[in-house]
Design goal:
Number of helices: 12
Order of helices and strands: HHHEEHHHHHHHHH
Largest sheet: 2 strands, antiparallel
Number of strands: 2
Radius of gyration: 23 Å
Helix content: 40-55%
Strand content: under 5%
Low-confidence stretches: none
Mean pLDDT: 93
Strand order of the largest sheet: 1-2
C-alpha cells in the first residue's frame, strides 16, 4: 500500500475546513499546524469527529467544532504532561537513592551476584544486565569514567543506579531480595507487590511524558494493585477505573506524598485548568466529580 501524499500546511488547513472544522483565523491555524503538526493535532480532534451508524468515527467533525477547541486540549495536555514528568522525576530520584542504599547494605556488587537476588523471570535479568553494561560503557559521566579508569571498571550498585532510568530501576526493584523490596515499599506505605505493579504501570506514563505523547485521555493496560482495608480514601475514586490517566496521576500523588522534597501542588493546579469550554470533559481522563475533595488532591 502506498503512503498518503505529503500535504502543505495550506492544504492541511483546507482539508480541516472541508471536513467541517471552523477556522476563524487562518494565520493562527497555520501557525498551530506548523508548531504542533497535523498528525499530532489529529489525536486531539478525534473526539470531535462524527460517528457512523456502526459506531466508527467518520472524517467529518461535529457542527460547531473549532480549531480553537483542539488547540485548548493540546495546550492543556502539554501542561499536564510537563507537570506529571516533573512529579515522576522527584519520585524517580528518591527511588534511586533508596534502592542504592538498601541494596548496597547487602553487598556493594549485589547487582552482579545472582545468588543474592530474587529473580522471578530468569530471562529478564541477563537482558537487564546487558543494558546496564551498555549504559556504563557509553556513559561519559565523570563518576563512571573515574570508576572505569581508576577503579578497574568495578561499578558498585550505588554508582550503577545513577545510569538507570525508571524502567531499569523498576527491573532492579523486582530483582531485589524480598527484604529490600519490603523495606523500600514501606517508605511509600505500600506492600512490595503493590509497589512493583506501580513501577511497571508508571514506566509507561514516564515514557509517554518523555516522548511528548498524547496523555490526558490515554488508557493503560498495565493496571496497579491498590491498597485494601484501611487505606487513603483517594483510592476509592479509581477502584473501578485503574487504567485511566487520573488513576496514574493518583499513584503519583501518593508516591509524592512520601517522597522527600516533592510537591503535591503541581498536578491539582493543572487539572483545574482543564478547558471545559473546549467541548470535552475531565471525565475523559477518568476524573470523578468532586475529585479535589479526596485527601491526595486537596
Amino acid at each position: 500500500m502506498e503512503p498518503k501524499p505529503h500535504c502543505t500546511y495550506e492544504k492541511q488547513l483546507e482539508l480541516l475546513k472541508e471536513r467541517g472544522m471552523r477556522i476563524d483565523d487562518d494565520a493562527a491555524a497555520l501557525a498551530l499546524l506548523e508548531r504542533a503538526g497535523y498528525y499530532t493535532l489529529s489525536g486531539y480532534s478525534y473526539p470531535f469527529r462524527m460517528t457512523a451508524s456502526d459506531g466508527s468515527r467518520t472524517d467529518r467533525f461535529f457542527p460547531g467544532t473549532s480549531i480553537t477547541q483542539v488547540r485548548a486540549l493540546w495546550e492543556f495536555d502539554h501542561r499536564l504532561r510537563s507537570a506529571a514528568f516533573a512529579a515522576i522525576q522527584h519520585v524517580e530520584t528518591y527511588l534511586r537513592a533508596l534502592l542504592a542504599y538498601s541494596l548496597g547494605s547487602v553487598d556493594p556488587m549485589i547487582h552482579r551476584k545472582r545468588e543474592l537476588l530474587s529473580i522471578d523471570h530468569p530471562r529478564a535479568y541477563p537482558r537487564w544486565l546487558e543494558n546496564l553494561d551498555r549504559k556504563v560503557a557509553d556513559s561519559r559521566e565523570e563518576f563512571i569514567v573515574h570508576h572505569r579508569e581508576k577503579r578497574g571498571g568495578v561499578i558498585p550498585i550505588w554508582v550503577a543506579t545513577d545510569v538507570l532510568d525508571w524502567g531499569g530501576l523498576s527491573y532492579l526493584y523486582s530483582f531485589a531480595p524480598s527484604g529490600v523490596r519490603e523495606q523500600v515499599a514501606q517508605r511509600f506505605r505500600l506492600s512490595a507487590p503493590q509497589l512493583k505493579s506501580w513501577l511497571r504501570a508508571l514506566n509507561i506514563v514516564r515514557n509517554v511524558c518523555a516522548h511528548h505523547g498524547r496523555f490526558y485521555n490515554r488508557y493503560y493496560s498495565l493496571t496497579p494493585k491498590l491498597p485494601h482495608g484501611d487505606r487513603d480514601k483517594s483510592f476509592d475514586a479509581i477502584d473501578s477505573a485503574k487504567g485511566t490517566t487520573f488513576a496514574m496521576l493518583t499513584l503519583m500523588q501518593h508516591l509524592s506524598s512520601h517522597t522527600v522534597g516533592a510537591s503535591m501542588r503541581g498536578l491539582p493546579a493543572v487539572i483545574r485548568t482543564f478547558p471545559r469550554d473546549a467541548g470535552a470533559s475531565p471525565g475523559a481522563m477518568g476524573v470523578p466529580d468532586q475529585w479535589d475533595s479526596y485527601p491526595l488532591w486537596r
